[in-house]
Amino acid sequence: MSGQTSFKMDILPLFTVRDIKGMSRAFDLTDYKAVKAHAQAIHDRIRGIGGAVMPPAPPVGDGPWPQSNIDLFDDCPP
User: Fold this and answer.
1) Neighbours of 2 (CB within 10 A)
2) How far is CA 56 from the centre of its chain?
3) What separation in angstroms does the CA of 43 have from each of 19, 38, 63?
4) Is residue 8 within 8 Å of residue 77, measured between CB atoms?
5) What residues contact 9, with CB distance under 8 A and at least 6 apart?
6) With the C-alpha atoms ordered 67, 72, 73, 78, is the resulting torsion angle positive or negative?
7) DSSP label at 7?
């Protein structure tokens, strides 16, 4: 990696098609501005703060993110 986290190259690939479809009623996970606006809520849910950890376990979802993905999400500039 170049040293700076990029939404398009690093963060967007963390979201599966299932994640994107599941969140489409609330906001667009493929849109940087939408993810930025909801970053705190995403941050909390991928850690299980304030509700069940997201993404949910199979068969509903692909299961919780590994810590490396959580760290990458946290490294994305505001």
Assistant:
1) 7
2) 12
3) 14, 9, 15
4) no
5) none
6) positive
7) I
> What DSSP letter does each residue of 24-67 carry, written as one string?
TTT--TT-HHHHHHTHHHHHHHHHTTTSS-SSPPTTTSS-PPPH
Determine the residue type at 67.
Q
Q: How far apart are CA 62 and CA 76, in angstroms?
A: 22
Residue 29: pLDDT over 60:
yes
Report CA-CA distances (Å) from 59 to 63, 65, 76, 77: 9, 15, 29, 32
For 56-76, the pLDDT digits (tens) are 999 988 999 999 999 999 887
